[in-house]
Amino acid sequence: MSVLGRRGIHYFQKLNSANIPSALIEKGQNRVIEASLTLIRERAKLKGELVRALGGAVASASLLGVPLGHNSSFLQGPAFAPPRIREAIWCGSTNPTTEEGKELTDPRVLTDVGDVPVQEIRDCGVDDERLMKVVSESVKLVMEEDPLRPLVLGGDHSISYPVIRAVSEKLGGQVDILHLDAHPDNYDAYEGNYFSHASSFARIMEGGYARRLLQVGIRSISQEGRDQCKRFGVELYEMRTFSRDREYLENLKLGEGVKGVYVSIDVDSLDPAFAPGVSHIEPGGLSFRDVMNIVQNLKGDIVGADVVEFNPQRDTVDGMTAMVAAKLVRELTAKIAK
């Protein structure tokens, strides 16, 4: 657990030990949550008004950071990822143009509504169930400002559950999910944690938020994981058969008959030769161009996306993985914006 996380918990324990009335603590928690949502709401309104005033955009990607790392089963470094990804997006070492020619400096292509203040909320003793609701509500606030669509910066993979829940609920129906990862993240409750980053897709499928779930790049899966895939009807594409599946995966057509497509990219789907800055290093993964071919050739209306599990504390070679995560965000932006 991080120093900040311990500090927040200790502060909450002191309040309890001082016999502070629970109603007073809850009132304080509610004020912090409302202030957090107000911040996201006003930023989203401002960016939405700007994009609508400029005109011509049917869909625009909007960055929302969720710096949450405490649901990781190993390291909590992903909590520090959102600012590092932003820094890499705009660092100046490359121009702000996507591979297909969209300009990231155009607000009709990309805006930013900032971060959900996860640590501040946890410092007040807010539990994970309420925290996940705050994440969901934050996503909905972005989606209320047409044509903004959420492009979420993790954070560990536990954030995908509240984000996809919000997207499905706000759109009023199921989505198809393209999930790139070394792991299926579908344990019932990994190490007893219902909200574990290793359990996020179990929560998503139990909630009925997805019609189809395609998991690509899998190369670390237990028997429980395989059983869960069968239970939920997951379309599993493992690295050991990737050469056989490549043509199909590079020509996907998703989203017809549902509310759209959601793309979730765990940075550890990539081979560590391309992205060493992750908590769970698993050799034998996708190349960066493999990922780009799958994403860029995807046919479907992308209504939301996330890039998760980049761990700056394990990054090497002058922030190489930060640049990889930023490139993933940039090219997802190009797929969302239209």
TrEMBL record:
Q: List, in alphabetical order, the GO biological process terms annotated in this UniProt record.
A: putrescine biosynthetic process from arginine, via agmatine
**Please, which domain of life does this record's source organism belong to?**
Eukaryota
Keyword Transmembrane among record annotations: no
Q: Which InterPro entries match?
A: Ureohydrolase, Ureohydrolase_dom_sf, Ureohydrolase_Mn_BS
User: What are the binding positions for Mn(2+) in this chain?
Assistant: H157, D181, H183, D185, D266, D268
**Annotated cofactor note:** Binds 2 manganese ions per subunit.
User: What family does the database annotate?
Assistant: Belongs to the arginase family. Agmatinase subfamily.
Task: Please give the name of this protein.
Answer: arginase
Q: What organism, scientifically named, is this protein from? A: Cucumis melo var. makuwa
